[in-house]
Amino acid sequence: MFQSNEFSSKPGDRYAQQLRRGFRRLRFEPEIESEYRRKLIETERLPAAICAGAGALVWFAFTLLDLHRLTILGLWGHFDPMVWLWVGARWSVLALLVAGAIVIRRGRGDYGWLSWTMYSAMGLAIAVTTMIVHGKGAFAAENAQIVVVMAAFLPLGLTFRRALAAALLVALVSAFMLLFLDTRHGFGHSLQIVAMLLMAVPVSAMGGYLREHSQRRQFLLTAILDRQANTDPLTGLANRRSLFTHAERIVHLATKQGVAVALAIIDVDHFKRFNDSYGHGAGDLALQRIAHALSADLRHPLDIAARLGGEEFCILLYGATPDDAHARFDGVLARIRRLAIPHIRSPGGFLTLSIGAATLARGERFNTLVSRADAALYRAKHEGRDRLCWA
């Protein structure tokens, strides 16, 4: 829904203001932050699913390696609790990764916590199984945890803070196990691995921070450009291009659901005379005040007010019955009259509007609806202006 809540506002101002303020802590104002999170979840859905699938394949390879290790160690049929924990952790995480990849790819909601859970479970399972394998006298690459820590900052649908929290959790738990539970290697050897493990956190976090900072900047720039492309720079209403794009969707939806749609084409009476008398600055201010009045009664999320060009506007109402639309369009005329914008070259002494309206007929295209409303507008002009006429 396009509205102009302040006459001095320009499209994209809140994004531009956020860009000027900066975001060193990787946080926007709440409304923009919510938009960014939704965009992040959507754009990283496929990469996150690919990462989960790749993780499942690698994990499956280690699961097959476990079968070989168990055979060599002669543990088949002699499972003690630690071996059960080893095998159970491996297969449980494998199932989680496979299911997670499917849910992320096919789902539509926020999968951020699922990604966080899968990553953390994988990292913690590696830490646990490494200690168990060492305890059984088999080889296990504890250095693999360094790779896991760095993987937290892959495109998993996680913000930097969530990724950092997951990386720290895995790194600290792994460090604790290496230093206090690893009985196979000496303390010095374990300390070297822990040092590299903890060093991997800030190094990879730096890359994650810079990546998200760049993503956030690109998000703001794209939003600013999108607003500029789809809104009128003077009034903040939708422009003609945006209106027709939106209207095609509305007409399709209304036809499918059997919902009424009403369109009003609005023209400011004797506006050229107004500009000649008061100047273009006053004309611009008058258009902004009119735009604010037009957008004040938009109730449904699919309602839209737009500036078609010059002094011509339109309102498209979704789900408004003919009686409701008539009352609301009459209300627009009344609001402009209450503004009492002086116009010495208008018959009534004040700025007024002429409105031509039409309701969408079954199977009608939007262009045809516009033509009928335009014809009604011409009739309103011909009958004396400052009135509403229906097609």
From TrEMBL:
Assigned keywords, A-Z: Membrane, Transmembrane, Transmembrane helix
Regions annotated as coiled coil: none
InterPro entries noted in UniProt: Diguanylate_Cyclase, GGDEF_dom, Nucleotide_cyclase, Rev_trsase/Diguanyl_cyclase
Gene Ontology biological process terms in this record: cell adhesion involved in single-species biofilm formation; negative regulation of bacterial-type flagellum-dependent cell motility
The protein's Enzyme Commission number: 2.7.7.65
TM ranges: 46-64, 84-104, 111-132, 138-156, 163-181, 187-210
GO cellular component: plasma membrane
Catalysis performed (reactions): 2 GTP = 3',3'-c-di-GMP + 2 diphosphate
Pfam families: GGDEF
Source organism, top-level taxon: Bacteria
One MF annotation (Gene Ontology) recorded for this entry: diguanylate cyclase activity
GGDEF domain boundaries: 259-391
Gene3D superfamilies (alphabetical): 3.30.70.270
Protein name, UniProt field: diguanylate cyclase
PROSITE patterns assigned to the protein according to its UniProt record, in alphabetical order: GGDEF
UniProt xrefs under PANTHER family: DIGUANYLATE CYCLASE DGCM-RELATED (PTHR45138:SF9), REGULATORY COMPONENTS OF SENSORY TRANSDUCTION SYSTEM (PTHR45138)
